[in-house]
Amino acid sequence: MTLKELAQNGEVTEEMKICAQNEDVSEEYIREELTKGEIVICRNKKGFVKKFCAIGKGLKTKINVNIGTSKDRPNVEEELEKLQVALKYGADTIMDLSTGGNLDEIRKVIRENCPVPLGTVPIYQAAIEAVEKHHKSIVEMTVSEIFKVIEKQAEDGIDFMTVHCGVTKESLQRLKNKERILGVVSRGGSFLAEWIIYNNKENPLYEHYDELLEIARTYDVTLSLGDGLRPGCIADATDEAQIQELILLGELTLRAWDKGVQVMIEGPGHVPLDQIETNVKLQKKLCHGAPFYVLGPLPTDIAPGYDHLVGAIGGAIAASAGADFLCYLTPAEHLRLPTIDDVREGTIASKIAAHIGDLVKGIKSAWEWDLKMAKARAKLDWEEQIELSIDPEKARRYRIEGGISKSKACSMCGPYCAIKIFEEAFKFLKGNQH
Questions:
Q1: Pairing relationship of beta strands 39-41 and 325-327 according to DSSP bridges
Q2: How far is residue 185's CA from residue 228's CA, in Å, rounded to a whole number?
Q3: Looking at 333-399, which runs of residues are DSSP E strands?
């Protein structure tokens, strides 16, 4: 039985107990929301996950970090370093998006070294193998080849999979009716769109959705229903094709739940700031409260090199509005394969966004963290401030570089520190009251 089915039968599993403790909520709350589908716990029955996390309603906002090789840089050792950096700075899940090298071996190595839930996008491997192993084009992939990859990855212990089931002949017609500036920017979405158009056939992941559900149920893989038609620029946001896909993903959610399969919904993408809350509310309504997993979102297109900051701004708004799961962006987004430093900066930026959202959601541990920092600042306790910071190494380095690491003040204010001045003034004020 899947976790969802066990929850429906009234059973509280060890995973549910651990997640309840991590979230400071009751075990029964986790069980009930798993039953409803408003919380997921991504974990394959193969049992690789050592650090469980629950994603969804009433819980801390989680973040995902993407790693993976490319054809130009098929170095798995570098990706393992990125994995360790991501884990160090608080990644709740990892996705292996490798497209270069021996994909099966790379995935297995990452899986063995990844204690948190691991996700993939199986259509990547299916498309790459069609070209490199079978010497065909992407449009010549067979349905059996696609599903063979899905089952292979499930067998290897993948906990959640992005599957672009909502890219259909009908949804592509919407793009034809209202042409976008940036068409389809999802890599998996573009593979399937090309396949559909060339073959004049329906998306195999949609047409054979029951087969996909059977694999997911067998291994208890969480399906992350991908936004293959997400907007790739601000001008394309919240258009007919995007909403049509979201409506379809809502229907597929109910079909998955009927089979005991856990589901998340993926969301945009490039969205103006004033449309982010609307997008979150639309998803929650149309997809029956299933957890919402957003890329960013990015509320401007003009910041290559700084998209981790753009994504953090959008992510904070999305999380505040009810998004459950943020996919990080790095400074390298739109430019290159991220370096180890890029992964560190992207992870921290996304973690900050998630925390900001948690304050708005009223998450107790988030408020306690900020309160501790405020009290440490009031005491001018620099060591405690550093230890409480999201990146203690950077905070400590800045303090040392300020040249007065032993001082009570900082190098900006020195003797004119507002906290010290007010502290003395307040003592006088309190003394006069007596």
A1: unpaired
A2: 8
A3: none
Give the pLDDT confidence of 103-114 residue by residue, as tens digits. 999 999 999 999
Name the stretches of the chain with pLDDT < 70. 404-409, 411, 426, 429, 432-434
Give residue-wise pLDDT tens across range 182-236.
999 999 999 999 999 999 999 999 999 999 999 999 999 999 999 999 999 999 9
Tokens 């190494």 — which residue? 393
Q: Helical H runs in 178-327? A: 187-199, 204-207, 209-219, 240-258, 273-286, 307-321
Indicate the SS3 state at residue 147. helix
Where in the sequence of the chain do the CATH 3.20.20.540 domains occur? 41-362
For residue 46, give every residue at least 6 positions away whose Cβ sits within 8 Å of its Cβ, in sequence order, or none: 155, 156, 157, 219
Phi, psi of 39 (to 5 degrees): -130, 145
CB 63 within 8 A of CB 347: yes
Q: What is the pLDDT of residue 409?
A: 65
The CATH homologous superfamily to which domain 41-362 belongs is Radical SAM ThiC family, central domain (3.20.20.540)
State the Cα–Cα distance between residues 102 and 98, nearest whole angstrom.
9
* Nearest alpha-carbon partner for 340 in 105, 125, 65: 65
AA identity, residue 290: A
